[in-house]
Amino acid sequence: MQTIPLEFYLLLSAVLFVIGAIGVLTRRNAIVVFMSIELMLNSVNLTFVAFSAYMGDIAGQIFVFFIMAVAAGEATIGLAIVLALFRLKQSVYVDEANSLKL
Amino acid sequence: MAIASAIVTIASRNPVRSAFALIFHFFMLAGLYLTLNAQFVAVIQVLVYAGAIMVLVVFVIMLLNLSNEERLSERFDFRKTIAIFFGIAFAIEVVLAIFIPGTFKNNLHPDSVKIGTAQEIGKALYSNFLVPVEVVGILLLVAIIGAIVLAKRKLE
Questions:
Q1: Which range of residues forms the domain containing residue A42?
Q2: Neighboring chain A residues of B107 at a CB cutoff of 8 Å
Q3: Tell me: the pLDDT tens digits for B12-36?
Q4: What's the CATH number where A17 sits?
């Protein structure tokens, strides 16, 4: 049976992770930063599922399940923080949230 | 396809457009999980990410009535250069880490069809991984309470 080699999945996942990292570092909008973090989490999930399928081990998919649960919790908390920040500053740009700076 | 939609997600100035690109990206990833025989994870991906999390994100974007991210963008050229430099360095590092060992099995494991089903995952979740499941339940409860407290209009 002709299947896709494991390296392709790993490479795709690495590329997606890098794209997410660039997004986190370059964007100013907190919500877009947030979506970039989701992108990075998803690329790690892809790696887990790929290894789980190629090694025949179920633990990888269980891990993906937990990562998704943590990502959901993180999403709710993060968006609530963005809402609170918007109420305080009338802006969602991360470089304007500098009240703790000296 | 997945890479293209991911690039659109971080590259577009309009947050709504980037959110929809991200939803498309999640569907692409679900398709990739299906090629890996992980049906349960694919379904959960569509339900949780493309459904719940993105509805939340889009809702917040609409609620905050954001405009395009245009002003002040030229002030951040320096930071952007550094970010792209580190991104490329990291990419090279990861690619090297993947291709130098080069001894992966190139076929799907024969058990992979079996372990992707909801039945097998449920069995593993409630036998070997019972304590983590409970901990994740508590974590989600804490997240709900924290979100409500943070999003309350007045903190007294």
A1: 6-90
A2: 1, 3, 54
A3: 667 777 777 788 888 888 888 888 7
A4: 1.10.287.3510
